[in-house]
Predict the 3D structure of the following.
Amino acid sequence: MEKLSKAGRIFYGTGMADLGFQQFLYGNFRPVILPSWPSIPAIVFWAYLTGLFFIVAGIAIIFDKKGRMASLILGGLLLMLFCFGQVSYELFVDPYTRHLGVWTNALKELALSGGAFVMAASFPEPAVNRREKPFLIRLLERFIPLGPVFFSITLISFGIDHFFYMETVAALVPSWMPDHVFWTYFAAVALIGSGVAIILKIRLRVIALLLGSMLFLWFASLHIPRAIADPYGADGNEITSVFEALGFSGIAFVMAAVNGKNDKPVP
C-alpha cells in the first residue's frame, strides 16, 4: 500500500503545483482558489505569492521533503480561503447563492483542503515532543481527522448536483459512451455512496480504491480530451479541471492506503 500512497501523493502534489503554475501564467487566482471579489488590492502579487506556495508545497508532497508540514500548512491555507474567500463571496456577493451549482468551486477547495490533511496523515509523524512543535502545526494537526470528511462533503454535494443538473452533466459524458443519462445517475449514486461510506468508515479501503479508480478514469477519458479540445478557454479552465480530477483521485488513493485498517464491516 506504500506504492499506492506515493502514487496518490504524486497525483495530489502535481494537481496543486499546476494550480500554482496557472496563477503565474494568468496573473490571477484560479476560481477554485478565490472567486472574483471586486477591488482586491495587489491581486496579482497575492496570486503569485500563493501560486508559488502551491508549487513548493506540491513538490514537497511529491518528494517527501517536509511533506507533512507542507501538507498541514497547505490544508490550513486552503481552509482559510474556503471560509473567508469562497463562503463569504457566495453568502454576501453572489446573487445566486441559493443554487447549489454556484458552490462548485467552493466545494472543490474544501475537498482540496481535506486532501491536504489526508496527505499529512500519510507521512510519518516526527519523533519529537508535541510541546516542541510550533503552535500553528499543533493546531493544524487537529484538522487531520476532518480531512476525509471535508472531501466527502464535496463528493456528496457533487452527487446531488448530478440529479439537480442532469442534462448539463449528461452533456459532459464522452460521446462514444452509450446512454449518457444512465452514467450521470450512476456517477451520482457512486459519489454520494462513496462520501457516506468514507465518513462512516465502512469498507473504507475498498470504497476509496474504487473511488480513486473512477476519478482517475474521468481524468483520462473525460477531462484530458476536453482540455485538448479547448486548452485556453476561460483562462485554461479545462486544464484546471484535468489537474483537479487528478488531485481528487490522489486523495482517494491515499485514503485507501492509509485508513483501510479502520474499516467497519457493513452490518
About this structure: The mean pLDDT is 93.
